[in-house]
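pinned: reference chain
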Amino acid sequence: MRSSIACARCRRSKIKCVNAGIDTTCRACESSGRECVYPTPAIGVGGAAAKRDLAALADGDDRNGDMDGPKRQRPRKSVAVSSSAAKDAAKGTLDVLDSSILTVKVWEAVFDLFQSHFATILPFLHPATFMGHIRQLSGPQSSSSSTAPTNQDNSRENAQSPPAAKSDLSPLIPLGVLALTARFHPQLVAYHSPASPGSPSNPALASEFYATALRSRLAGVDGASLAITDLTRVQALLMLALHEWGMCRGKSAWLYVGMAIRLSQAMGLPYELENDVFSRDGPRSPAFRAETDLFGISRRGMEPKEQTSDDVIAQETKRRTFWACFILDRCLSSGKYRPRMIRVKELGIQLPSDNAFAFGERVRTSRLSEPVVRRPQSFGAQGVQIPSIRQSLGGFGDDKLPNNITPDPKSWSPISRRKDSSEDEIDRWEIGAEEAVLSRVIRIIRIWGSIAKWSCAGGRRYATASSISIR
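pinned: its structure tokens
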């Protein structure tokens, strides 16, 4: 054992340490009034090195000898270790979800909590798909099953997709749902943080338990899994970001949202390139085609007339996943040191639709960069008036036409009336008064983001003509 005769401060400053021995105050620390601390001496380092050298000599591996001689290769154990660690990590995740507390009844209550508290900000979970996976994994013992629900990696958004094997299901979405909702479920709180006579239960510990498992699963064994472009990973990162925000860890939440946005951009979610009918002003230059091929983004998928309801739901799920990225980006980005990552003028995606998500209808909506279309009435293919949602519910004064005015469907712009399905291969238009509530929330969040940026920049004291523009 080699003793250390210089204190930590003198070692760090690379100056001579004048002392009377270990555990005594040196002259430099005494003059500056600092605490004199000595580092702990290393034990056994030299012995281990000597043993390695002796073993090398015994095996005939003389490093100073002939370089042309045969070299003995050491067996590689990293692959086996990584494989074993991956299996242990997967087993740990399954143990988290295989708890006997996670029955179908608990999952139904948990999903209701998610729909009540988080579905507006994270609107991409399809109820039929999510609960279908839970019942599929639970099997006949739906009331007392100890198997936790998981979702598919790439086709979980398809409500009517064929059942997948358990090995094909990803635990990311269930872990994300539990990380957000476990604190609100009394049974899960009591299970993960039981109350004692000296201290009450802590609901946050229940959510932290599943959030920790989600972080581990997202990172993988060596962290390489973070770069996998998968829709469930984007959704899981958004769930984890919202959990971090709720735990008052805004910086971590902002970082997770940034990771989700980058993955979504790598997947082409801000652009609807798979359908040229919806991508009205998309670029078609050779450079653009080369870029889409480089990133593995499909430039064109099936025609709208070939889309089934499941295909429409899958497309709407991707669309809603990106809009969740936009909502959290505007909520968590503010000021100079947390800039926004999404610019509205660069988006080539339409606003979400409830009918497309719930029923698989081929719906056309406006884009966020387009002005809001105010129209009092919808018209069918033959010019038949179709009342809007607000008019059906009583409407507002601005939605009603004067009695002495007869609307002319031909005088309206193409985006302000419903088209024949044989012309544009769509089922309905949802713009103006028929726009979904979620679309209006997105418009409000956009305004809120501009106000937050203006306020963090100094507000009215430093306001300029362009500092409060809606972008």
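why pinned: The two ends are 65 Å apart (CA to CA). Residues 83-267 form one domain.
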